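ugh ok fine here u go
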Amino acid sequence: MLVQTKAEDVAVVWPQLVRKYPTPAALSRARASSLVKLLRPLGLQNQRAKSLVTISTVLQRDFGGCVPRSTGALLSIPHLGLYTAAAVGCFAFGERLPIVDANVLRVLGRVHGIKAGADLRRSPEIWSLAWKLLPDKHCEVHNYGILDFAATVCKAKLPRCESCGLNELCAFYRNRIAHHA
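structure:
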């Protein structure tokens, strides 16, 4: 639900969704019109509704209505990609997995001076770096920290470089200073 959508917008819709459809079985039986209406504030409601019904149907059919723990099993579910599989593994099951989305890609790319592009699947250097930076314990705190840092400091537009605690280590900031000198 976070695709092209702010977390605070999803946070408004999410409680309504889980209250109305508390299990994969309930969601797999959802009427499309009802689900589309609920998801409308997020945009892409038809696509989201179809994806959620497909995901819940597969969870019900192939996994007994439970979310699987393994990354491989999660990746076998339609509409779930590497980011979602890693997020579920890390945040739901405490697995040691890096979370790399467009925001993390931006932060790591800027700090380390890596020209990564927008396609996460084609950024092996960023994924390698994300694995190297991952602590042995409390990975969820580490991952949330990078996501929060990206949202509040290292923003896509108007990054707060001058007040950033990492600016002296950051290739993006050094390059920015050099171009303004």
